[in-house]
Design brief:
Oligomer: single chain
Radius of gyration: 17 Å
Largest sheet: 7 strands, mixed
Strand content: 15-25%
Helix content: 40-55%
Strand order of the largest sheet: 5-4-3-1-6-7-8
Number of strands: 9
Length: 262
């Protein structure tokens, strides 16, 4: 019998906000973006929290964020993120998600975070939560600056492909695995596992979950993560967290659901 794992999306599944847009104010304080850009980011966060956005809206956001980060100095971003990471992320982690992750770990399952946000934010959060592996987007860097392009995009069908690749390399039996996400763009990811769950689902995912008989979970209680898990010291690897996630968050695409595995 193969091993089992639990695959979690990050934004609105483990944490209560977009991990990317939550960093707009620290970047303004660091002189990277203007007050007008902060206001636009706040509006994008509002749209995201209220129920997500359709493909056209998300594409506009992706273009906005791509233009915004292009040319940013990596060292400056690293310094800002290292100083503000736990202040921004710590208060917005769902207590229900922390408990669920702990339950899966106690059951002997690997915990894997699969997110369109940048690897610089997903990896430290994953380490903090005791995740065994993360799959995340990677932002392109040339000569110490962000180009605004993405080297690897972890969204839609790519999440499902990454999960299947992990299953092959780590010996997971996907029919015994669990999946959690809030977005209809993650239908392929949820269909890749035997026990999919919709968490705080957008309208389209709620509809898809109802049609497929998937359980719907509602997470409502953010908890200070440092009250649950000791926070590690800031590391340079926390670098471009909001930047990578910024472009990735805006680049989600609508995915056509495939038939569930027999």
């Amino acid at each position: 019998m193969g091993r089992s794992a639990a695959f979690f999306d990050l934004d609105k599944t483990i944490i209560a906000k977009s991990s990317t847009l939550a960093f707009s104010k620290p970047f303004q304080a660091g002189g990277l973006i203007s007050r007008r850009a902060v206001l636009r980011s706040a509006y994008a966060q509002f749209v995201y929290l209220v129920g997500g956005a359709d493909h056209d809206q998300m594409e506009k956001l992706r273009q906005f964020m791509s233009q915004l980060v292009a040319g940013w100095d990596v060292a400056t971003v690293r310094e800002i993120v290292a100083e503000t990471l736990h202040h921004v992320v710590d208060p917005i982690v769902y207590d229900e998600a922390v408990n669920l992750i702990a339950q899966h770990a106690l059951a002997g399952r690997d915990v894997v975070i699969v997110s369109a946000s940048g690897t610089e934010v997903v990896e430290p959060i994953g380490e903090l939560l005791g995740a065994d592996h993360v799959v995340a987007s990677r932002l392109q860097v040339v000569d110490g600056h962000y180009t605004g392009e993405i080297d690897y995009y972890a969204y839609g069908e790519e999440k499902a492909r990454a999960i299947r690749e992990l299953a092959d390399s780590r010996g997971y039996d996907l029919e015994r695995c669990y999946g959690y996400s809030d977005s209809v763009t993650d239908v392929p990811m949820l269909e890749a596992v035997g026990f999919p769950h919709a968490v705080n689902p957008d309208k389209e995912l709620r509809r898809a979950a109802a049609a497929r008989g998937w359980p719907v979970l509602v997470f409502t209680k953010p908890v200070a993560l440092k009250a649950r898990v000791p926070l590690p010291p800031a590391k340079p690897a926390l670098a471009a967290l909001a930047v990578s996630g910024a472009v990735a968050m805006g680049g989600v695409l609508w995915a056509n659901a495939r038939k569930r595995r027999a």
